[in-house]
Amino acid sequence: xxxxxxxxxxxxxxxxxxxxxSFKREKFIPRGGPDGGDGGKGGDVIFRAxxxxxxxxxxxxxxxxxxxxxGHGQGKNRxxxxxxxxxxxxxxxxxxxxxxxxNLIKDLATAGExxxxxxxxxxxxxxxxxxxxxxxxxxxxxxGEHSKTYSIKLELKLLAxxxxxxxxxxxxxxxxxxxxxxxxxxxxxxxxxxTPSLGVIHTDWGEPFIAADIPGLxxxxxKGQGLGIRFLKHIxxxxxxxxxxxISELDPAAPLKAYNTINTELFLYNQSLAGKPQIxxxxxxDMQSSADTELKFKSALPDxxxxxxxxxTGKGIDSLKSQIINLLGIEDESQ
Length: 335
Description:
This protein is an alpha/beta fold.
């Protein structure tokens, strides 16, 4: 299924039913009083975050959604039926944004969370409501209140404990397939991964955690170049980052170029991302002549703990997983 992380839809609540104008018509009661019932309330538009959904794919075709109208009031003081609510299930981590102003309306970040975006119209009062001592036979009733229409942009931000970032072809897809059951497309050309991949990583003693393979970023990503802002926004939801660097592509004369490029893009997009905890990982140490490059890189970052791995052969993967678990603070539940 294609990953869809943005959609614009129009939603409309239900109209309120109109009040009824009616009078009692019973044998031996020639002048029965008013008995027109109220109209029913229109249905609400409710968004609900559910853990079972992963994309906004359903809205690729469902662009206009409407709640049911309230029923009209009837004689004998019968109230019209309430219009059915429109409950729209969306993935956890979806933002509701006003499509016209760009203002954030609601961030549905918790499974089961609900939000009433548009309340249904109120039902009109029937003529029985307007009977007074001076007007015993009112011949008017209220119309139902009109519905409300909103144009909404849905924007999904992935929820993950760990985000794997790096330049294209750093080996992110290979890494997530090595540490989880995720099986993203892997190939030897840039931008192989066009959609984020989620993988569940199980530990021997505690709760599993979720990692997201964030598609390759390049210089200028914060301005939308490459896959740019479309995927930078997903990094905001992660707790920690694995900064993956292809050791075979490092220039010994400027070993920090790739590292600084990614961190600069994070900072320029959102300064808070630059302060997010990072595990710096050198990948592809199975390549020839990687030892000298590894030493130069580590020397350029003396204050950083750097893990060297081969996502392809599995070397160093256990050390990386232990570092992730420690940083996430996953407790040992076997004791």
